[in-house]
Design brief:
Chain lengths: ~120, ~120, ~120
């Protein structure tokens, strides 16, 4: 099995609703977004998935969240912007363009800081 | 599948018994402790497992090992304090409080330095 | 399940053949090589696999690629030196000596820079 990983960053504000102590105050993070695709075999050119194209898609997603209030981002409003839900949102944003490309699964990790992340990993349809 | 990760550090002494070259001398490391829980679904508040509570449990474990001789820590005496056994000890220390919380598995990585770790990962009962 | 991880670095040149934009120019990276072995149980001495021996094998592999043009390395010539193919080459270089040691699988990650890696992971025979 092969995998390819790319990372990007974005800086954004958010706050949690509920019994989350100081996380209920509006604050923010320098988020690190790590994205991994997996598949069984390489193409004739020696790639699982072109890293340049992959990196472009992940950078575009990070840019769309940069210097934003996550609680106002379409697709995140109405849900608590926990790292888990941000990971789910990023997973759902990236997955549609990754189908039909000989990839088996997609993992997205959203780091709030160097000591904390949440991730979603699921098979690609 | 979702996962949540938290990390902490502790500085401790140890030595190995057996044919381990310089590792048989009393020495020490700035250990990095990485802990990951995994589960299938999020709760209504958008969390897999509250990161604040999780981080507190991992920090408490790290504090209990900080500035200690691992070879004298209850639960580690009698076993060689390899990174593998320290990972096992940390896994067994954390697992009991993680049962019945909709979590499927627990992984613990014990880094002796930025180029070496050992880990244990197993399903939660 | 237990795992042991070691990392090493090498600095090497390469270029890709095909429609890869600037990557078709001869360039290079400070590669980071991460290697993980996994197995179900520890030996009586508390190790899955002796980290000193493991680290030596990985350092030897990294040294054999250091300050080289990867496109001229035996085992890589004729294939595009994508990170995926370098990971495959490293996997195939390390796997033969890891058989019959109670290890189940081997993973090799080849980082081209801190934001990009490719990996191969497969069971050990």
């Amino acid at each position: 099995m092969y995998e390819v990983y790319v990372a990007a960053r974005f800086e954004a504000a958010h706050r949690l609703i509920g019994d989350f102590g100081p996380a209920a105050r509006t604050h923010g993070h320098t988020y690190r977004l790590e994205v991994i695709v997996r598949g069984e075999s390489l193409k004739d050119d020696g790639t699982l998935f072109d890293i340049g194209e992959f990196r472009g898609a992940v950078e575009d997603l990070a840019s769309s969240l940069h210097y934003r209030d996550l609680d106002e981002v379409s697709g995140l409003t109405g849900a608590n912007t926990t790292a888990e839900n941000v990971a789910r949102f990023c997973w759902e944003s990236l997955a549609p363009d990754l189908g039909g490309r000989n990839l088996d699964s997609l993992a997205v990790r959203v780091w709030e800081n160097p000591d904390v992340y949440a991730a979603r990993e699921d098979p690609l349809g």
